[in-house]
Amino acid sequence: MNFNISKEKLLEGINIMNSFGTRLTGSKGHNDFVSYLKKEIKDMGIDVYSDRYSFDRWEAKESSIVIHTDNGYEVIEVSSEWPYSGETPKEGITAEIVEVKEKHIGFAGVKNKIALVKVHDLGQIPTGVAFNQRNSFPRDLSLPAYYKGPVATSFVNFPLFSVAKKMGAKAIICIWQGMSSEMVKGQYLSFIQSYLNIPCLWVSEKEGEKLLRAARNKQKATLTLLAEKEKNAKTESFYSVIEGKNSKEAIIINTHTDGTNCVEENGPIAMLEIMKYFKDKQPDRTLIFVFVTGHFRLHEFKQNDIQASSKWLKNHRDMWDGKKGHIKAVAGVSVEHLGCTEWKDVDGVYQKTDDIDVELVYTGNKKMDEIYYDSIKGRENIRTITLRGHNILHFGEGQPLRNVGIPEIALVTAPDYLTVVSESHEMEKFNLDLMHEQTLTFIEIIQKIDATPSDQLGKPEPYTFGLGRIKNKNK
Predict the structure, then answer these.
(1) How many CA atoms lie within 13 A of 256 on its CB side?
(2) Is residue 209 within a helix (H) or strand (E), and if so which, with residue range?
(3) Beta strands 342-346 and 285-292, pairing class
(4) What is d(CA 365, CA 110) in angstroms, rounded to the nearest whole number?
(5) Which of 36, 74, 369, 456 shows its CA 20 to 30 Å from the CA of 125?
(6) Which of 120, 217, 117, 107 is nearest to 162 (CA)?
(7) Are 21 and 29 in contact (CB under 8 A)?
């Protein structure tokens, strides 16, 4: 694959993206990044079409926990704030700390107190509950038997808020269990619920032990969580079109623009280079490039789905459903999380374990799977597993495409640092060579899809159910 895509240009784009800071939905950093992307596309001579939205934005600005002891105060290090949880007065909330030992019955004793909740790593839940493996390269690569990591762990545990609020808790402190302090620091989790109206902070297991000790001694703590709240904050999704010879059929290439660090979300940087490649090479089918907002405010932006692209699909049926003179989208390609190295806890130490994190890729059917593996031939940096949608789960912005009947190839690598907010933007975990190869792969995928008759591309296969396969047959 030699498509004249520059590594230096990709790195320049990543550095410009990082210069805007953390790009939470509707924040100044996010809006500035969107403006940059639109200008780059317009400078290519390609039109940009925007969908503008307003929503109530919340962003944590300051937090702390202090235990009141007989000898004064003990400061507890906060790992991160729970997004859209709630806020305290400037002076904070002072109350007795109480451990919630059994969810959800344990919340019976939290009235007017600060609830401590242990959030255990999902180490005993089989990976096959959420994933069903199709194939892999190398052939002996397989999914782990059990899931470990912060993202899904937080998603599973978020219902505890409604119980704590109903039972009169003043605030919640969630204590990570089974994960190192370094892994959990700065995690922007969980981002899938509505505004909760109860302040909540995350602490590491190490710091949590201090709080649990204080709870056993019936000590008090002061918890502070200050947040910026903006009514009718502005944000937008946008899209651009590269006209093909066949104006009745299209390929949708999508990603999201809001994110937390250099890999979440760097899909737009790759898409700029992909657009530059195709703009002077008229493809057979029309290419529609979609950049959506709301991935980190899903409660506001999803439409009968769990991903933000569903809102764009609902608003632009003329671009994909093929009815009444509308364009028919014959396939979709989702570009997310490029250049990820693998970092894991090993004997309690968070460290780099591979130059390449496993590329998880959803392929909508056997033909799309074939196209994907044909497209990675010759790659030097490759560790990949392809997946089917399973138990109604399909992570990433490819799911809305799949759910409206568009067969997809969707990259959704999921490193444990994916949602971390940090001063470094996690650049120490970024692999430029890998992002470069992945960007070339996406160009190859689009070209192969474009050359394939629509009847061969087919439709997405149904979701599978039960316990999914986590390794290849006949390895």
Answers:
(1) 34
(2) helix 205-216
(3) unpaired
(4) 49
(5) 369
(6) 107
(7) yes
Question: 107 is written with which tokens?
Answer: 């919340």
Residue 449 identity (one-letter amino acid): I
What is the C-alpha separation between 327 and 247, in angstroms, rounded?
7
- For the residues of 414-469, what is the DSSP string, one character each? --TTTTB--TTTTGGGB-HHHHHHHHHHHHHHHHHHHTS-HHHH--PPPPB-SS--
In angstroms, rounded to a whole number, what is the distance separating the alpha carbons of residues 338 and 411? 8
Q: What is the pLDDT of residues 106-146, one digit of tens each?
A: 788 899 999 999 998 776 789 999 999 999 999 999 999 98
- The answer to whether 291 and 257 have CB atoms below 8 angstroms apart is yes
The span from the CA of 266 to the CA of 260, in Å, is: 10
Report d(CA 17, CA 23) in Å as an integer.
Answer: 9
Reply yes or no: is the peptide bond before residue 460 cis, omega within 30 of 0: no
Please name which of 72, 78, 74, 114 lies closest in space to residue 97, comparing C-alpha atoms: 114
CA nearest to 82, candidates 174, 213, 180, 4:
174
Please measure the distance between the N-terminal and C-terminal CA atoms of the chain and give it in whole angstroms.
28
Give the tens place of pLDDT for each residue, 442-474.
Answer: 999 999 999 999 999 999 999 999 999 999 876
Say how far apart CA 296 and CA 397 lie, in whole Å.
Answer: 12
What is the residue type of 219? Q
Question: What CA–CA distances, in Å, run from 335 to 96, 167, 341, 429, 463?
Answer: 47, 43, 17, 19, 21
